[in-house]
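Subgroup meeting minutes
Present: P.N., E.W., G.H.
Scribe: E.W.

1. P.N. recapped why we're keeping a running log of single-chain structure predictions: easier to compare across weeks, and new members can see raw inputs and outputs side by side.
2. G.H. added today's entry (158 aa).
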Amino acid sequence: MHDYFDRETEVSLHLFRVFSKAFKSISDHSATCCKNEGFNPTDFAVLEILYNKGAQPIQQIGSKLLLQSGNVTYVIDKLERNGFLRRHPCAKDRRVIYAELTEKGKEAMGRIFPRQALMLNRALSGLSLEEKEMAIELLKKLGMQAEKLGHSPAKKTV
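Output recorded in log:
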């Protein structure tokens, strides 16, 4: 393709493009399901963490979703205002604030989450169970290496 890249770099670029397109297609399925239920994907992601993991420190919710703290506060405020979650201070450290689902939030997620899971299963149906398990391991390996390298620019090798 380009004379100045070696084969491995070309394949890495192609992998990035394919990965990005696949991620967008699958994310679009998820977003459609969320929107059909009246939530944006970020709102739903916060509710999903609380539904599956129970009460969580607000700061940890943001880091799990890779959100800036201001964005987390905005989403939490909106979900609390609409009655889906509540905040409460940690009994051991009052600087830590937890978010947890209300009964309304639990009921909504009990209805929505199974549909979301089926939608994602359908969106990922292009792979067999074994291929999905292999993809999980490969993507974890890829992510851990990228994280280990940090965000410093690559050294020029050409």
